[in-house]
Amino acid sequence: MRTINLAGAGIKRTLTSSAGMMDREVLIIFLSSKDYAYKDQFAFFDLPAGDYTLLIQAAGCEPCATIVVVKPGEFVPPPPFRLIIK
């Protein structure tokens, strides 16, 4: 993944994948509730309730956009994304 953009509820965040991290570093970042992107995984933390547009851009693929609904106190991962090769 090249970039992961999240926009909505007055928030705009962008992540880029950090393929150079080790699994232990990823776990530490995840447990500290910080946004991260690693290989084919990513997470955004501390988002207010609302609808967000998630845009994923990967080299050689068409951009993939979807709406994600955030509700307080819920951790519900969105369904898997399918990237289409150009």
Task: Please tell me about this protein's structure.
The protein is mostly beta strands and 86 residues long. It has one domain. It is 10% helix and 37% strand. A four-stranded antiparallel beta sheet has the order 2-1-5-6, with no helix packed on it. A hairpin with a 2-residue loop joins β3 and β4 (41-43). The two termini are 14 Å apart.
Features:
10% helix, globular, 86 residues, single chain, two-stranded antiparallel sheet, four-stranded antiparallel beta sheet, mainly beta
In short:
The protein has one helix spanning 23-31; strands spanning 3-8, 11-15, 36-38, 41-43, 50-57, 64-70. It is mainly β.
- The proportion of residues in beta strands is 35-45%
Give the helix proportion (percent range): 10-25%
N- to C-terminal distance: 14 Å
**Number of contiguous helices:** 1
Strands, total number: 6
Instruction: Note the main sheet.
Output: 4 strands, antiparallel
Q: Calculate Rg over CA atoms.
A: 13 Å
Count of spatially separate domains = 1
Name the helix and strand elements from N-terminus to C-terminus, one letter apiece: EEHEEEE
What topology does this entry show?
Layout: E1 3-8, E2 11-15, H1 23-31, E3 36-38, E4 41-43, E5 50-57, E6 64-70
Antiparallel strand pairs: 1-2, 1-5, 3-4, 5-6
